[in-house]
User: What shape does this take?
Amino acid sequence: MHETKLFYTPLWEDDLSVAMRDWVDHRERMLSKIYELERASKGVAKTNFGGWQSDDEIYVHPEFGWLMEHILRLSNQVAAEYAPEFKFNNGHIWANINRRNNFNAVHTHPNSLLSGVAYLNVSSEDQGQIQFFDAREGTPTNHWPCFFQLPGRTPLTDDTFSVKPTQGKILFFPSWLKHWVTPNLTDEDRISVSFNLRAT
Assistant: This one.
């Protein structure tokens, strides 16, 4: 029987620690700059409960210029999924520090097409995972339990997908995809850089 997959939701992933020869040096410079920015500013409050979040223009600092270039290069590997000959050429990035019990509430990223996160300092999934939610308006798990219990989960019936953070991992996802970051259950800072991309 022929199957047509309808309205799929992609999640793209790469590893900066493998792709970038000088990743270790870049990472150390970014971490130092993030702590410096935190000392200089109380940050912003958006989806973060606790923790610290920078403004969304950290690309103005030379420590993050290479990362923005790399993000745009990777994003344009998937740009054709949006439209033929389409190119991402504009966006902004910001830093996040989540300490014990800090988390980010459920949200999307409006006014952009492609969003993502790069992990700079993380050593265990207990520091908080990113969890994505089924984008369909009426998810199977909302409706089917009224009639019967499903014994397990499959790609058709799952309504969440979690990604364990690892140092150097970078994720790209459609900006409309609902997600949150679970609480950091450790005493180690979880540091990441998030981004939104557009085309002008």
Notes: The chain has one domain: 12-133+158-198.
